[in-house]
Amino acid sequence: MEAAQNDSNNLTPEVIKKLIESAHEAKKKSHSPYSNFRVGAAILTEEGKTIRGCNVENASYTLGLCAERVAIFKAVSDGYTNFKALAIACDVKDADLAPCGACRQIMHEFGGEYKVILSRTDFTYRTMTMKELLPMGFGQQDLKRPRMNYNNNN
Ligand SMILES: [Zn+2]
Question: What is the pLDDT of residues 26-42, one digit of tens each?
């Protein structure tokens, strides 16, 4: 066994390519009849499992959910909360589309160390870290900070 296989942060080009392919496969399941904007996401867990998500829109427009959050919620509901990378795919050409703010916040909940792979239709990609996408993100540690005391009379 190669030592690299034990390195949890080792994302080889082959691993990234497979994750991007998974995100593009997930995109094919997109339910986006209103925006016609298909998005797929594939998240790689520390355990090596890939979990896919697609955007799911609704006739009540505001109830839709982005592919990134679908993938993360699926992963968490299956017991996975430690991630190595998240690949995102859409149909936009010649641009690196980044996740929306809501997705960045959900992604931040599960650590700031994993890689986010923004892929294009030709499977080229740009890699970013969570900290680059959401600097100074609000997280669990902020809820533990000392706070002023108050009561309802003030
Ligand atoms: Zn989003």
Answer: 999 999 999 999 999 99
DSSP 8: T
CA of 105 to the centre of ligand 1 (A): 9
Question: Residue 6 has what pLDDT?
Answer: 39
- Residue spans per domain, the chain: 3-143
Q: Which two tokens stand for residue 144?
A: 């533990």
Cross-strand pairs, 56: 31, 65
Q: Tell the CATH superfamily of the 3-143 domain.
A: Cytidine Deaminase, domain 2 (3.40.140.10)
Environment of ion ligand 1 (residues, CB < 5 A): 66, 100, 103
Q: Tally the C-alpha atoms within 13 A of residue 5's C-alpha that lie toward its C-beta.
A: 2
In 3D space, the residue among 134, 129, 131 whose CA is nearest the CA of residue 118 turns out to be 129
